[in-house]
Amino acid sequence: MAKAGNSMKKTATPAGAPAINIGISEKDRAAIAKGLSRLLADTYTLYLTTHNFHWNVTGPMFNTLHTMFMEQYTELWNAVDPIAERIRALGHVAPGSYAAFGKLSSLQDAPAEPPKAFDMVRTLVQGHEAVARTARELFPMADKVCDEPTADLLTQRLTVHEQTAWMLRALLED
Q1: Per-residue pLDDT tens for 92-138?
Q2: Exposed/middle/buried for 47, CB within 10 Å: 0-12, 13-18, 19+?
Q3: What domains lie within the chain, and their CATH numbers?
Q4: What is the pTM of this model?
């Protein structure tokens, strides 16, 4: 228990829970949470687009793309929870509505009319690259304040998105 006059004084929130004191300032936690909220919105938007394409793909590559899109949307679905939980661990509310995601995401919504199969692939390449850019933009801030859990999460996301973009792009080469 902290003694009176201790330089590590913690203040209590109105509900009685101790204030967050993880070695990262509130200002830095807020900035990182804001960036993670953008990453969450991008990830969820890409998840939804990928799932849409899984449902609506047609053509000679149907089975290959249908299966590939399922693997990709499953991976994206499994990624949203750790991102949201990191935002919560930093003491902020994770966005969770379509309206919030629409404002935060750098990705466009899935097209109203399903595109042709290879246009789907192009769209997903661009989506994965956009999510990678969002993650990479946040990385220096997390690194600067020694936020290793966020840096690790970002590294994992960068690896997935860059590799997926490469694999999708390979389908478009002659």
Answers
A1: 999 999 999 999 999 999 999 999 999 999 999 999 999 999 999 99
A2: buried
A3: 26-172 (1.20.1260.10)
A4: 0.89
